[in-house]
Structure formats: C-alpha cells, structure tokens
Amino acid sequence: MAAKKLQETLSKGVLEEVHRYGGMKQTGVSLRYMMEFGSRPTPRNLLLSAQFLHNELSIRIARRALELQSLPYGLSSKPAVLKVRDWYLDSFRDLRSFPEIKDKNDELEFTQMIKMIKVRHNNVVPTMALGVQQLKKDLKPKVDYQDLDEIHQFLDRFYMSRIGIRMLIGQHVALHDPNPPPDCVGYIHTKMSPVEVARHASEDARCICFREYGSAPDVNIYGDPNFTFPYVPTHLHLMVFELVKNSLRAVQEQFMNSDKVAPPIRIIVADGIEDVSDEGGGIPRSGLPKIFTYLYSTAKNPLDEQVDLGIANTTTMAGYGYGLPISRLYARYFGGDLQIISMEGYGTDAYLHLSRLGDSQEPLP
C-alpha cells in the first residue's frame, strides 16, 4: 500500500531519480576536516561546500525515502511514517530542482533552501516515534522485542543518518554568520564547557518537570566549569536534557506520595565523561535489555491520552521510548557512547562518554 502511494505521489521521472540517487555511495566527512574547513569560510570554500551538499544531501535523503516505503510489519503505512516519507520526498525534489551552483548568488540561494529543508524536518524524530507507537498499539499484546529487531536496526540507521544530514546543513548555514560567537566554527564550539551545557540542559528539563508535576527535584552539578574541549553544544544539550528528564521523572514519581524530601539528581563531569545519577527506584531488571529499543518506555504511552494521532507532543516528559536510543546515537556520532547501569529498588546511573572531535569519520548508515 505504501509503495503504491509512493508511485502515486511522484512522477515517473522523479521516482527514477530517487532510485538513482538512492543507489549512490555516500561520502563521509571527517570531523577534524569540518573544523579546519570551517575555520576559513571564504566565498570559495562556501561555494565548494554548497556544491558538495547539493549532491550529498540528495543521496542521503533519497536513501532514507526508499527505506521508509519498505518497512516491515506495516510500519510504512502508518500515518505518521507516511508524513515523514513525504517530507523526505519534498526535500529531494527541492534539491534536484535546484540548478547547478556556479557563483556566490547561487550559493546564497542554495543555503536559504537547505535552511528550509532543515526546518521542514524539525519534527521527524517525534513524528517517527509516533508512528512506532501506532505500530506498537496495533501489535499489542503480542509485542516480541526480539522479533522486531529489523525495525530497531532501521531506526538506528534512520536517526543516525538524520543526525548527519542536520550536522552538514547546520554547519554550512552557520558558517555564513558574519559575527560568530567566540571560539565557534559553525556548529562546533572549540572551547565548550560541558559543565555549562549540563547546567542549561538541567534547567530546561526541570522546567518541563515543574509543568507536569508542579515541582521538580534539585540537580547538583560537580565538575570544573573551566574544563573545555571541542564539541557541538546542541548535541550535548540534547543528551544531558534527555538523561536528566528521565531522572527527574523517576525521582518525582518515586517520592510523590512520600514524606521524605526527594533526593537531588547528581551530574558529575570528568574528563570526557558525564555521569547522571539518581535515586528514583531504578529500572526493572526485565526492562534493562529493552531500554535502547524504540518500542520500550517505563512511562505511559502518550497516545493513550491523545485524540489526534497525527500530532506528536514533543514536550511530554516520557512515553514515546526514543530518548535513550537517540541520545546514544548522538554520542556515537562523534565516537562516544552511552551506558546505563541500574539497581532496581534504588536508582540509575547514566554514563555519557564524550569523544573529543578528531579524525573519526562520521558513521554512514
């Protein structure tokens, strides 16, 4: 059904183009090269960057669009997934209809166009998560997480590709800033303080907790604020925000009806490692093998309380089951990792290992 709709959506010529570009090889970009290239944002370099992205983004977006139409268990036909697929097809059409980039004016117009593509894809993650939850709802009560491994692998590839696409677009667009912040090369902050990022992310997570519960546990951060290294602050913010949000919810619900004062969340920042620790009761042992899958959450499914299944609530505390797996992908994109250790009945430690930007090639799913 989804494949038929794809043929109905596209002209024969565009469909052939999608298949042609979807069969091409992607080109990885070294993170060190991004920094070195971006440190000299001359008109010539920006023109070269735009010419590269014109082709590379077409390849990456086409590959994902093709995958989206051939997913198992009927996932491709879910309304939310069809919406995401159409966003990718619209972006592919925009890229291929853009003429050859020959001069500075072409490059500036192209930059505006890919900015709009990035905005169009802002809600891809929660909308895909909604589609997965729609599938999960249909499969109940026969969900076997082992049998759905094919879906988990696809989503890992899909979300990792999205990180790369947004990194390439964001880096190119940011290089046009005539007054970049100090020590910034596009998206990359050459002297990022993980303590400062953790502080901002924690404040944002506590705001959501306050909104949902009327109160929020304290978050104590330990570490040297003067310790810095090159990284992408928006990526670290997302990861710490998700981890702290999980901890806040666990502690809040553990102590909601207790006379005891809720213990604070602790964030310890060391050299390349952030430890987010809570006393929120831990994760059940039966759930630990599933925490990095896209069909598992310890919270109530937000779809159970939604009337319009076509709208994804991006600011709910939990329930879609994508915060941890997405955070791990962001960590791995730069050669790091995320590990979870939990003691049922006590609490959870999340160890975020951050790899400093170097010669590692971006992963190409």
Automatic annotation (TrEMBL):
Residues 233-358 form the Histidine kinase domain. Its EC number is 2.7.11.-. It is found in: Mitochondrion matrix. GO terms for biological process: regulation of glucose metabolic process. Coiled coil: none annotated. It comes from Coffea canephora. InterPro entries: AK/P_DHK_N_sf (IPR036784), BCDHK/PDK_N (IPR018955), BCKD/PDK (IPR039028), HATPase_C_sf (IPR036890), HATPase_dom (IPR003594), His_kinase_dom (IPR005467). Belongs to the PDK/BCKDK protein kinase family. Keywords: ATP-binding, Kinase, Mitochondrion, Nucleotide-binding, Transferase. This is Protein-serine/threonine kinase. Pfam families: BCDHK_Adom3 (PF10436), HATPase_c (PF02518). GO terms for molecular function: ATP binding; pyruvate dehydrogenase (acetyl-transferring) kinase activity. One of its GO terms (cellular component) is mitochondrial matrix. PROSITE patterns: HIS_KIN (PS50109). It catalyses: L-seryl-[pyruvate dehydrogenase E1 alpha subunit] + ATP = O-phospho-L-seryl-[pyruvate dehydrogenase E1 alpha subunit] + ADP + H(+). PANTHER family: [PYRUVATE DEHYDROGENASE (ACETYL-TRANSFERRING)] KINASE, MITOCHONDRIAL, PYRUVATE DEHYDROGENASE KINASE.
